[in-house]
Amino acid sequence: MIPELGSAAAIVALALALWGAVAAATGARTGRPALVLSAQHAALGVFVLVTACFALLTYAFLTFDFSVRYVAINTNLGTPFYYRITGVWGALEGSIILWTWMLALYTLIVILRHRESAHELYPWVLTVMLSVMAFFLLVITVAAPPFARLTPVPADGRGLNPLLEDTGMITHPVALYLGFTGVTVPFAFALAALITGRVGDAWITLTRRWSIIAWYFLSLGLLIGGWWSYHVLGWGGYWAWDPVENAAFMPWLTATAFLHSVMVQERRRMLKLWNLWLVILTFGLTLFGTFLTRSGVIASVHAFTQGSIGVFFLSFLALVLLTALALLAWRWDALSAQGELDSVVSRESAFLLNNVLLIAAAFTVFFGTVFPLLSEAVRGVKVSVGAPFFNQVNVPLFLALIFLMGVGPLIAWRRASPDNLRRSFLWPVAVGVAAAALFSALGIRSTLAVLALALTVFVAATIAVDFSRATRARLRMGERLLPAMGGLLRRHNRRYGGFVVHLGILIVTLGVTGSQAWSVQTETTLRRGEAAELAGYRVRFDGLTATEESNHFKVAGAFTVSNGRVLSVLRPAKKFYPQEQSPIAGVDYRLGFGEDVYLVLGDFARDGSEATVKLQVNRLVSWIWIGGAVLTLGALLAILPDRRKPA
Amino acid sequence: MRARAPLVGLALALVLAAGAAAQARRVAEQQMHDVAAQLRCVVCQNLSVADSPSEMASQMRAIVRERLEAGEAPEQVVQYFVERYGEWILLSPRRHGFNLLVWVMPAVAVVVGFTLVGLVLVRWTRRGAAAGPVPPTPVDAAMRERIRREIEP
Amino acid sequence: MTPGLLRWLIPLSAVPVLALLAYGFRVNPRDIPSPLVGRPASAFALQTLEGAPLALEAQRGKVVVLNFWASWCYPACYEEAPVLERNWRAYRDRGVVVIGVDIQDKLEAAQKFTRDFGLSFPNARDTTGKVSVDYGVYGVPETFFIDRRGRIRAKHVGAVTDEAFRLNVEKLLSETTG
Description:
B: mainly alpha; 5 helices; 68% helix; C: alpha/beta; 5-stranded mixed β-sheet
């Protein structure tokens, strides 16, 4: 009964979404508000129905309804309660329902916020969002039905992928999908602008906060993914340039470019065509990402593929790209550039360079990801493109971007006078160069590390220069220090929100630099009582324990970690799940501000007399997560309501 | 005093030898790591043999270590794997022939991008010069702040 | 090209990329051709599960079907085990030998597997992984067909079927050494 209700809800939702898309478009073209209102109601209906779908699927999970194939594959009688909830979106069908639900939620919020304020664009925004929802609902009803039945009904299910039994599962897909689906909103506004011909600044202003929110969730999703990789996958790293990781990174890069280039359009009314193209590209990349994950076209650790679904996604991607780009070509004349500049040395140039570097990085990642496919198509030879390539090619681009991060916010619009350049940059450049000299003197041998550190110091100095200048101006007016600083942040929250986000990126950069340049590792076999030493830490193997958990069998090693005094006992484990071919590594670690001690259990003797362990001391990795927290604060600050408008 | 000198000398030699052996082990481990970092772990998808926690990767690392200790050059060990698995075992495509494309395209993209930006900037500045004098550049944050304070009620 | 037509390059630029992605549906990224085909098979010296020595050199002059498997490889290895046993019994008097190599596995699991399927051809465990690396094995099951002169002539990835077995073995049997 429940599964049938769920399937019915999906079908009705699909019908409503199609009706709503047509109604909104017709209402816009013929000027009949009643139709647009009907589309709004349809959107509400879709939201309610998709929520019901979600709830019914969760109910099937919680009640061990193994007659539903999706439940039987992803749980078994031993699956713990909380994983029976998060497991709902742990595989293909459920993840598409999550995606659709988020789209419906975003549509509702768009309706509530914009039905009064965006008259011309609004109906077309509704059309686009409902159309995208209709596609995903089509996938749910036809290609990947979550409520498909399984006969005969098995007595027990297979079980959730053990790698997904982790808190990361609650947050990583949710954050990442909020980012992916969030990009649909600026895209919808862009298409609405193209369709109505209102390609001026209205759509940019309306979507400013949406773009920041979508960008933020993409960033958060990527960072949580890195954290999940670090503490679950057992290799001590946080980013592997896996094709599906790349598929999430590319829209983040282009979304970052978009966030910056819209500022040029807002201030100077330039780059209209570019911004429209950029948001279309970003949305296309989110669809490409979901295509990669689900089509099996490129092998990846993430890919959860199934049948013909790849064809659905590729067809939709083709439809979206060709339609949107054709609209862009159609409106070409209205978008011709009127740009004016007094000097090449100006903030506009800095932003343009920023965009070039980010797009080049996105292109590099894209080309590297599809190159195996290209090589096979052209030469018939399979090659693989992995981390060494991406690291080598992208690092110079990212270093240049960090440099621009220091230049952009302080350099003047239109023309930067020598005076402006001197007052803003003399001191930071001096500090940066001094830092480079200092780090070299301290014995850091890697030039890339020295460069990254020096650039970070330079950018931090520019932020300090700007903030202190503005604070001093307020102090001179008679304000006290703390209210002055707080007032600055609040009144100019966009600018300083951006600065805080840049600070977050700097901290992440420090974390990445430290972990890449100074982490060490070793792998040894220890007998009971024997110890290994690395980087001042002494790790002694004390023995093995075996335990029976609800859905797996766990063998854990006890390792005492000390550096003069005993710090802790770490218990890396190997977990044996009946439904998995090989055991899953369970790492254990001791996080620190400056370095983490990280242990992975390898082979062991049955009687617990000896064990192989991989021991890593990873430097500065915690700074990546701290940087993420700072980034969150910056994004929150940036989307606060404006205080500068007249009352 | 003189009887102790050879003992001290022996102790010193042992310590130095142990230190040298430890150093040699570290260097060998680093070499193994460098070779293993170039190879793709065949069961994990997208991790290197150096990074992968799987048993197969552990065995592959042992093979690399053995071959290096037997005197093979790192490049020879890599070639041993390529001969058996094909080029896809390398995490980074070899830089020759068609593969050069993937190495060159990023640089091409940057150059093309910079060129386009350069052209656009030139066009904009020309238009800017033709448009005549413009109002002075907005001044820095301090002055702006002062103005704002002065015009506020 | 007039500016009027130039603008349509923008949507057209998406077409080659989409075409490349569509091409991806025709290929399987996990299906990798072996560079060892046509090359001499690497020698190995292992011990069967019963403890008897098992060396490739000793099989020179016979057609060798070398099969890599594991007890945790479900369902493919479970599907092909009866196929291998059946064909082994059919061809053993014609100068064909089937050798199984168990990788990444435990002794008891391997013994249970051979017992359950009643495998009578020699099976050995590759405890160090050296043999599987020597043959470029990247998953199980994989089967190599080696001719009488000790050259690898074909590699079959995935469960072996009766037709695949017979096709390859008959071809190699029909060749005369010389």
